[in-house]
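Dear colleague,

Thank you for sharing your sequence with our group. We've completed the structure prediction you requested, and as agreed, I am returning the results in plain text so they can be pasted directly into your records. Please verify that the sequence below matches your submission; if there's any discrepancy, let me know and we will rerun it promptly.
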Amino acid sequence: MDGVRHLPDSIGHGFIRLLAPDPGLMLGIHRYTLAQQFTVQRQPDYAQPETLLVSFQAFGPAPGGALHLSTAQIASTNIGFATVLPAHTEIFMVALAIEKPLLNSWLQGTDSALTPLLTAAHPLVLDTLITPAIQQVLLQVTEPRPAHPLDAFFYRIKAQELLYCLLRELAGRAAAPARHLHPADVEKIFRVRTELLASLSEPPSLPALALAAGLSETRMRQLFRQVFGMSPYDYFQAARMEEARRRLPSQSVAEVGYQLGFTNLSHFARLFAKHFQLTPKKYQATQGR
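Please find the predicted structure tokens below.
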């Protein structure tokens, strides 16, 4: 299977390409800009327990400075939730459906602590911010290219490269005990993330987030760390730094720091350097500012 579909003008512009480069592996490549916001509702599917769904998505500049975090995710098919695709923003996405035996065969001999986690029958969602290595491969895969006889070989390698980068990022979580994840918990914890990122200039109130989601604060912290790999506050800080990196090529360090709620610019600079190994000024220099 290898088919390309171009979006009609009424929906937006761009393309979706579907491939099956390997038995047990399906690949969807998305690159488009939508005319209107779309919400994609994924329903739980209990008929494919041996399949994992893996997605990688990144976004171009958004109008009005809207925040859209670039993320990668592994989920079991028995988990359903909504994904919001913004309007007037270029979207780069790769979606994989991979059978667990195939993934397990790729991981054989690696001594990966993630193997039991990824092959277990219980509901699973692991979500992480995209690293520069993942983004680089994602942009390569979503680049339009004419069909070629070696496409199955190329996309198999790129799917493995994306999975390698993602699993490397997630490997540290395997040591943490995984609590049972109910589908309703997934909806609640993604709602917490949405509320958490509603304003990057004000640190979140964890009791208020837990109350809004209908969770105890302890349960919210546990679920958030299990799904996103860090505490709500650390995730908030990481999102602020990603947004700072987006704004710094066109704004001064002081403007960005104050807009994101930092009253102490030295603290802002130290936090940025901790995340990106460059001070804001040095990062601007790499962007030609």
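Summary note from our side: The mean pLDDT is 89.

Kind regards,
the structure core
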